[in-house]
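C-alpha cells in:
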C-alpha cells in the first residue's frame, strides 16, 4: 500500500478515536420528533485583571501593558509597565488621547472603554463558556454516553431518544479549550425525555451571581490553564488580555441554576432538569 494511503488511514483512525457520541441538533435533523431544548445563560461577574492594565492600540497586533497606575496628571496617566509581551518598559506618562482603555486591578475603568473583543458580557461568543453534559440512559447501563453541548448566550435544541438520563460527567470550557474544568462525579442530575414532544429542560444559568432559583454547587478539578505567554502565542495580544481577564481558581467550584422561563406550548413539554 502506498505510504500516502497509509498516512491518510492513520489520520482517519486517529481523528475517529478522538470523537464523541454527540447529540444531533434539530437543525441537522429537522424531522426528529423527540427533542430536548432550552438556553444557556451566563451573567459574568466584574472582570478584574491580575494587575492594572493599559491598552494603547487595537488592530491585528494590539499594544497593551500590565503594571501599576502611578498617578493621574493634567494630561493623562503615569503608568509603570511591570509586565509586557514585548520587553520591560520604563515608567511613562501616557496622554488621554493615547489610551484606548485604562483599567485598575479591581476592574474599574478609569479612562476609555474595554473593547468588545476583550469584554466578557455574557453574550454569544466563540471565546465564551460552553458546557458538555455527558448523559447516560438510566435504564440501559450498557449504552454509550451521549454528549449534549451548551454554549453561553445560545439556545439549544437536540434530538434525543426518549427515556430517563443521568448526567455522568460535566466539562466546562472557555476561550475555545484554553480553559477547562471537569467534574467526574456531578450532583445527581436527571433529565426526563418524553417521546414525540419538545422537552424543555430549562434555562441553564452558569456561574451567574444575579441568577434566581436554587444554586447547585459543582466541585470540579482544574484542567488546562495556559500561561500568559502561551495565550499570547495562540491568540496574540488578544489572547494575552483575555487570559488575564479570565483567570479561574485552581480548585474551581462552578454553580448551575435551572430556571423555568418558557411557557408550555403545543408539542412542548416542561421537563426541567431535576436534582435528586
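Residues out:
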Amino acid at each position: 500500500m502506498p505510504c500516502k494511503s497509509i498516512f491518510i488511514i492513520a489520520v482517519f483512525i486517529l481523528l475517529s478515536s478522538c470523537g464523541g457520541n454527540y447529540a444531533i441538533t434539530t437543525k441537522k435533523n429537522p424531522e426528529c420528533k423527540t427533542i430536548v431544548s432550552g438556553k444557556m445563560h451566563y451573567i459574568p461577574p466584574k472582570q478584574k485583571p491580575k494587575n492594572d492594565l493599559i491598552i494603547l492600540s487595537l488592530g491585528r497586533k494590539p499594544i497593551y501593558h500590565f503594571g501599576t497606575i502611578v498617578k493621574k496628571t493634567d494630561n493623562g496617566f503615569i503608568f509603570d509597565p511591570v509586565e509586557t509581551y514585548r520587553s520591560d518598559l520604563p515608567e511613562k506618562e501616557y496622554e488621554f488621547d493615547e489610551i484606548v482603555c485604562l483599567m485598575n486591578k479591581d476592574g474599574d475603568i478609569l479612562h476609555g472603554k474595554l473593547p468588545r473583543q476583550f469584554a466578557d458580557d455574557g453574550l454569544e461568543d466563540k471565546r465564551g463558556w460552553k458546557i458538555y453534559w455527558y448523559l447516560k440512559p438510566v435504564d440501559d447501563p450498557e449504552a454509550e454516553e451521549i454528549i449534549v453541548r451548551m454554549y453561553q448566550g445560545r439556545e439549544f435544541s437536540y434530538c434525543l431518544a426518549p427515556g430517563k438520563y443521568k448526567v455522568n460527567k460535566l466539562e466546562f470550557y472557555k476561550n475555545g479549550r484554553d480553559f477547562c474544568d471537569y467534574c467526574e462525579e456531578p450532583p445527581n442530575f436527571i433529565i426526563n425525555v418524553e417521546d414525540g414532544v419538545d422537552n424543555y429542560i430549562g434555562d441553564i444559568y452558569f456561574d451567574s451571581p444575579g441568577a434566581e432559583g436554587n444554586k447547585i454547587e459543582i466541585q470540579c478539578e482544574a484542567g488546562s490553564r495556559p500561561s500568559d505567554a502561551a495565550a499570547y502565542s495562540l491568540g496574540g495580544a488578544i489572547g494575552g488580555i483575555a487570559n488575564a481577564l479570565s483567570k479561574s481558581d485552581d480548585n474551581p467550584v462552578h454553580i448551575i441554576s435551572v430556571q423555568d422561563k418558557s411557557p408550555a406550548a403545543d408539542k412542548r413539554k416542561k421537563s426541567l432538569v431535576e436534582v435528586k
